[in-house]
């Protein structure tokens, strides 16, 4: 399983509560536990939970959980429903005998789906292209698969294939693609949702060295994207990415808190992460 690409959920101050909830629900485990960052592993996949500025999550990025049995779907649904909000009723649909879309008590959206996996991944981030992005799902897939190595485009289902009359028949109802062997799904939606991509859920790319860091930073911010701070960048569709070198992760994981603080202060002043400058701060 590729763990160089993984999602990050911005939790405000609820990272530990969220981590405990998800690990209990999906039989996962906490692998990193700090005041700021908690990493969990669900179904062998990494998710970062970040205690940062409060940012409301929304269904523009959701997590599809591909289940083997109806009981498994029901079990997850019942727990997620506690304090949550149903977005699509748990029911039988043309694409699944048992499917539902729900937002949990922490604002994270989950699609529970009884069916066959498109890859080894049981949990798949799903991107919804809405408003000015509606109709650009295929364009986005092509953009992302050009940027990332070891990428491929899988099955693409158009709305005309599913008889969805309210949508443009040429738009994407469901598509699968992989970035460096990491699976994602996406879809177009013409509904006037009161939300869009934001920093609430981002994708992390762990890079190896400055050259690779610069490559992803420049590629994902190109063609109208935005350079943010602390290694964050928004692509031209508004999806947030964190480009962070593995070498720097070692520095911020050091047991010497004074050295870590110096590195974090240096990161706060950066946009793209410069490894050399962080190493200088570490040794200062």
Automatic annotation (TrEMBL):
InterPro entries: Glyas_Bleomycin-R_OHBP_Dase, PhnB-like. Transmembrane segments: none annotated. CDD domains: PhnB_like. Residues 4-112, 121-243 form the PhnB-like domain. SUPFAM superfamilies: Glyoxalase/Bleomycin resistance protein/Dihydroxybiphenyl dioxygenase. Signal peptide: none annotated. This is VOC family protein. It comes from Chryseobacterium antibioticum.
């Amino acid at each position: 399983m590729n763990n160089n690409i993984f999602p990050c959920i911005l939790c405000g101050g609820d990272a530990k509560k969220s981590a405990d909830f998800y690990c209990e629900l999906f039989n996962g485990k906490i692998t990193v536990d700090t005041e700021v960052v908690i990493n969990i592993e669900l179904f062998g996949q990494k998710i970062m939970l970040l205690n940062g500025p409060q940012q409301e999550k929304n269904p523009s990025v959701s997590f599809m959980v591909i289940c083997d049995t109806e009981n498994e779907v029901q079990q997850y649904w019942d727990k997620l429903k506690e304090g949550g909000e149903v977005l699509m009723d748990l029911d039988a649909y043309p694409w699944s005998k048992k499917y539902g879309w729900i937002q949990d008590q922490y604002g994270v959206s989950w699609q529970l789906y009884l069916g066959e996996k498109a890859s080894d991944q049981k949990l798949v981030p799903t991107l919804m292209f809405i408003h000015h992005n509606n109709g650009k799902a295929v364009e986005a897939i092509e953009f992302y698969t050009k940027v990332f190595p070891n990428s491929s485009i899988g099955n693409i289902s158009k709305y005309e294939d599913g008889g969805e009359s309210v949508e443009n028949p040429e738009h994407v109802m469901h598509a699968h693609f992989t970035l460096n062997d990491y699976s994602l799904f996406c879809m177009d939606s013409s509904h006037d949702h009161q939300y869009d991509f934001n920093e609430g859920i981002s994708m992390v790319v762990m890079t190896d060295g400055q050259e690779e860091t610069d490559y992803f930073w420049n590629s994902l911010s190109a063609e109208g994207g935005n350079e943010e701070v602390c290694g964050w960048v928004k692509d031209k569709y508004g999806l947030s990415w964190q480009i962070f070198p593995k070498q720097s992760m070692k520095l911020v994981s050091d047991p010497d808190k004074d050295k870590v603080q110096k590195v974090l202060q240096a990161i706060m002043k950066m946009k793209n992460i410069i490894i050399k400058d962080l190493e200088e701060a570490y040794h200062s």
